[in-house]
Amino acid sequence: MGSKDLKLLDVFSYESLVHAVAGAMGSVTAMTVFFPLDTARLRLQVDDKRKTKSSPAILSEIIKEEGLLAPYRGWFPVICSLCCSNFVYFYCFHSLKATWLQGQRTTPGRDLIIGIAAGVVNVLVTTPLWVVNTRLKLQGAKFRNEDIQPTHYKGITDAFVQIMQQEGVGALWNGTFPSLLLVLNPAVQFMIYEGLKRQLIRGVHRELSSVEVFLIGAIAKAIATTITYPLQTVQSVLRFGQHGQPADQSRLRNSLRSVMYLLTNRVRKWGVLGLFKGLEAKLLQTVLTAALMFLLYEKIANTTFRVMGVKRGLSSG
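-> structure tokens emitted (317 positions)
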């Protein structure tokens, strides 16, 4: 069997499929548990006239004004998008890793490069899903900013149709430019997670405990989120589609100008700290979600491999 056949086997391998399914299942469960915190974060990012408060205070306001189930508005499209996104990311990450390494020992640098490549594929494939779920999640919200126009989507399919009809097919990829920059987030997260995991395993010479996996997942996500948070805010605003971006004939130049405009406008209004508005809510949600996701992912993957009789080294991941 030639080297090309071996590489194809690495890409379409049972092990990559298990990692992808485990990652998707872990992320969906974790996001469902901490979904209200993501609702609080998104309101702070998009509704620029809402005062920054603690996550419980924001959620209390939302429930009082919009009803008990309001923190879970848009749950289904978010879960669908997250499931697809994490399946694609985990599958690409582990397929590329197996193809490139071919049994060699991995390094943080390699993990970072593989994570960036997997992130680019993920962004290009799943951005339309995230644009639609951002719109649906904010539909019916009571905004402090009166300039925001209400939308009327009946569901995921209707949102796709209306966006394409009213704004053009390209609108489904709103926020792609900052999303491509934000592939650094999961890439840095995986680099730190895999690095800490390898170091701990070398020290204890056993599978990591649930607490250890939860902690290194939390640490990795906290660092990655803090570094990339200003771009995450811009990404949310662009996906919402009511940001008044400067017009330009070149889509790439227009995207770059929109990112710079939104960043500078935020700094002008609230100073540098304005770039981190909602960070507390984001950190609380994303760190807990990522930590639980990694824990469930490891448990699901390890259990599946054990049941199927697939032997894996302790450092594999």
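The mean pLDDT is 81.
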